[in-house]
Hints:
Two copies of one chain form a homodimer. Chain A is of the alpha/beta class. Helices cover 38% and strands 29% of the residues of chain A. In chain A, the strands form three sheets. Chain A has a six-stranded mixed beta sheet, sandwiched between helices. Chain A has a three-stranded antiparallel beta sheet with strand order 1-3-2. The first copy, chain A, has a two-stranded antiparallel sheet with strand order 6-7. The longest helix of chain A is centred in the first third of the chain and has 18 residues, at 35-52. Chains A and B meet through helix 1, helix 3, helix 6, helix 7 and strand 5 of A and helix 1, helix 3, helix 6, helix 7 and strand 5 of B.
Amino acid sequence: MxxxxxxxxxxxxxxxxxxxxxxxxxxxxxxxxxxxxxSEDMKLVREAMNALGYGYLETTSGSKGGVRFVPYxxxxxxxxxxxxxxxxxLEPDRRMGGGFFYTADLMFDPQIARGVAMVFARRFAAVDAxxxxxxxxxxxxxxxxVAEFLHLPLAVIRREAKVTEGSTxxxxxxxxxSDRIQKMSLSKRAIKKNSRAILIDDFMRGGGxxxxxxxxxxxxxxHAVGVGVVVSAGKEHAxxxxxxxxxLLLDDSEGEVRININL
Amino acid sequence: MxxxxxxxxxxxxxxxxxxxxxxxxxxxxxxxxxxxxxSEDMKLVREAMNALGYGYLETTSGSKGGVRFVPYxxxxxxxxxxxxxxxxxLEPDRRMGGGFFYTADLMFDPQIARGVAMVFARRFAAVDAxxxxxxxxxxxxxxxxVAEFLHLPLAVIRREAKVTEGSTxxxxxxxxxSDRIQKMSLSKRAIKKNSRAILIDDFMRGGGxxxxxxxxxxxxxxHAVGVGVVVSAGKEHAxxxxxxxxxLLLDDSEGEVRININL
Lengths: 263, 263
């Protein structure tokens, strides 16, 4: 294989497993060439990645000496992703009674979910998390892509304790949007003690669900090191939870729907 | 940018959006060079991709003349993915009462979900589907990756009609594994009439859930063109639904758990 082909293959391998460490020796072995050649290849990959702006190479420490691909979006690209989502959100007929919006098609669209996840991954790249946590159902696709990008496992909190979850921990929390007590349940095996978690949810109004997820984490002697919600609705976003990172701020308080991008 | 850098960038762009059509003109514009240069680049990308085996380039027809990246896994790699999953499945303590298994950690692990999705994407690459459909909750991550790989939208059937789903269609079906009537519900907006759907589910025993999903599709005047389940349990897999593609066949009928790979 010549240099160009190797560079193409290395790019594909790295992009296929974001934030996973690869040792240069492994590449040298796989492509049957000297480690110094791989180092040269890596310089070219690094430059091309920097030029494209989809992510960058990080050199990993340790005796083995390796690299990992860290996905990244520029401010401009992140803004574009959120502006596209904002436009989709403002489409007619999304608004239903009770301050609810139809968003399932958006939250489960792989392109949208992946784009949004990229913005979260950028934000939470340095929080040193052990796990991504979401509560079913509509945030799962976004959370799965965040977990992929950050090379972390994903735990999904259920609404009801399921027989397939084994022993579970359950908590009750007050949901302001539905104006009642709701339940969350998670398998005891799902999160290790002392975990640092990134919480992801699709929609927040009042913050009850996020508060519930934090209470759940406390039951696992763990805590949140980052909270990302796709849309925060209401007039007083900032007051409710000041450690939440919402991508879109939705204000529907006076009949009209206004959405601002929050980057 | 020189050829090697362009090849690296093109690889990244293509792999970032599987099964999405890209016109050569767009690349020529983006990299500010002649279309003939991009054609040469593409030859190199094609060869390198073929050598690596993570996917291949398909030339798209039409006046614009373009390419798309089609993810692919070799038989050997697919077998390895399933063997890894099989080993994880056989870990002690997964088995619970009533023929249930704890699999949430596996189904939501992005590496596993992505690997499994790759095998499904390979299988369903040519069925010409319009949408991927799953029923909440544990198959959602796999289904999201399948949808990403095939560049399709994803629709998630809920257990209960939710207020955020707007008008919904609901069906009842008999679940053999829980021995009772269960319900599925999907927003009327989720699937267009005459859609060709790929159904994905994490676990099948008896096939009631898949039958329910098919009934749901019929309500949308749509039908399944492929059905993938990660694990099929029971002794008589083949008899129940002969159009299902299960990846692992689990037989726990005589106290012991035996799992075979089905490729």
